[in-house]
Amino acid sequence: MRTKIAVAKGDGIGPEIMAAVLRIFDAADVQLDYEYVEMGKSYFDAGHSTGMTAAAKETIERLGLLFKGPMETPKGKGVKSINVTARKVWNTYANQRDFRSLNGVDTVFSKAGIPINLTIVRENIEDTYGGIEHLLTSDVAVGRRIITRPGSAQVIRYAFEMARRKGYTKLACGHKANIMKLTDGLFLETFYEIAKEYPEIESSDIIVDDLCMKLVSRPEMFQAIVLTNLQGDIVSDLCAGLVGGLGFAPSANIGDNISIFEAVHGTAPDIAGRGVANPTALLLSGILMLRYLGATTAAASIENALLYTLEQGIHTGDFGDRSTPSANTNEFADAIIANLGQLPQKGVVIPQPDFEYKANHDHPSKNKLTVSSNVEEEMVGVDVFVESNKQPAELAEIAKTKTTDNLQLVMISNRGTQVWPTGSIFTELVNEYRIRFEKKDGTRISQKEILHIAGELSDDFKVCSVEFLMKFGGKIGYTLAQGQ
Ligand code: NAD
């Protein structure tokens, strides 16, 4: 049965590598039909604020599958990255990136005889990629880092299911919960909650800096790692380096309704238009897509031809033996096509399902909303962020005049470090403070009372923002200041 997919050629080297990959697909008779969609820099330039036409959006939502080349986001125009927007808008919550040593691609590890075969599953929607940032004073920029229970559960469950399908025996969670106690803490708590459903998979967690050190010193320790968005982005580029660079790093952005397959690398403007780009990462992404579609035989045949070609020492300009001439993009694709049917000496790929594909993706009639935890909530105070050039003690004198019968001033901090009632004279300040009020024991406070105190403070300061202090199921849902 033939399947129709949406294809976006992309910008820079995108059209060159996409043409090469689709030629290989056609030669391998992959049974795909393509509907080309209009997305990328030229569509931003033509005035489409999302970087794609309405017809492109309709096609992708109808077909549920997008194979895309890299795309450039115009700089300095305030527009958001089309790559990130596409992943977020269509909820492709799990970004799976497979990294393995390839014969013919020399790395420090291949030379040392250490094979690498690991998968990073990166959360793809949340974290700092919410892109919610504000300049609160002309000196102070603040970004929101959003980690949610449903979002974490979705990607972590995907990682465990993937580990099970691939026959992995272990899955690690990378995090920085020692510092980001509530955000990464929630991700980690969710990881161990879901791990209980997969007792056959050994689950562990590792602090992300230690993870980076271990990945470069003992990569064979890991089979699969699940991480939040930004840490996952950084760690997966590190892993690309372990297996020979961005030219060999594929990615699958998996959602329940729509999935996107693309290379990890960008548009490579420095070599665009010269026909010399390496199409391997996009080809490997296409191979992931074929497996996702259940075309496991075609996927294995193309991958074996690619591995055989690499073993022959055929290479593009970005890798391989510099003493032998490099192939251009088309010559590299031609060599793979000529090698279809060949098997590599090492690591023959056998057809095996890698994904659980829902052929008839749902077309929902309304946005899905998930509330996964419902515990008793209590409002216990407020942090009011204000702009001020005053010293902490002066600020405290003014803040004390704003307290009510129920709310007391407990702490003032600057850049997260407590500066009142105690602190160090050596703590350097910027012009944005946090003033924390908490309710007195035995009292109840309302949102109205809290907003009133912020209103009172606005007589003396610019109020930059207000955050409620909450308890959930009796546990405090906010962090203490350093030194508090
Ligand atoms: P890049 O990945 O485009 O290039 C980094 C370096 O790697 C360059 O030297 C480039 O020549 C080389 N390179 C990348 N892919 C290659 C390939 N297939 N063959 C040979 N060499 C290759 O990263 P960049 O320069 O930081 O970004 C350029 C543009 O790409 C930016 O506009 C960025 O926003 C965009 N980008 C898009 C995506 C995406 O579409 N998913 C991802 C990353 C960057």
From TrEMBL:
Q: Which UniProt keywords apply?
A: Glyoxylate bypass, Magnesium, Manganese, Metal-binding, NADP, Oxidoreductase, Tricarboxylic acid cycle
Q: Which organism is it from?
A: Mucilaginibacter pedocola
Q: Superkingdom of the source?
A: Bacteria
Function summary: Catalyzes the oxidative decarboxylation of isocitrate to 2-oxoglutarate and carbon dioxide with the concomitant reduction of NADP(+).
Q: Name one GO biological process term.
A: tricarboxylic acid cycle
Cofactor field: Mg(2+); Mn(2+)
Q: Does the keyword Transcription regulation feature in the UniProt annotation? A: no
Assembly state and interactors?
Homodimer.
Domain Isopropylmalate dehydrogenase-like, chain residue ranges per copy: 4-336
Q: What is its EC number?
A: 1.1.1.42
Entry's InterPro entries? Answer: Isocitrate_DH_TT1725_C (IPR040978), Isocitrate_DH_TT1725_C_sf (IPR046997), IsoPropMal-DH-like_dom (IPR024084)
The family this protein is said to belong to: Belongs to the isocitrate and isopropylmalate dehydrogenases family.
Q: Which reaction does it catalyse?
A: D-threo-isocitrate + NADP(+) = 2-oxoglutarate + CO2 + NADPH
Q: What is this protein called?
A: Isocitrate dehydrogenase [NADP]
Alphabetically, the GO molecular function entries are: isocitrate dehydrogenase (NAD+) activity; isocitrate dehydrogenase (NADP+) activity; metal ion binding
Q: Which SMART domains match?
A: Iso_dh
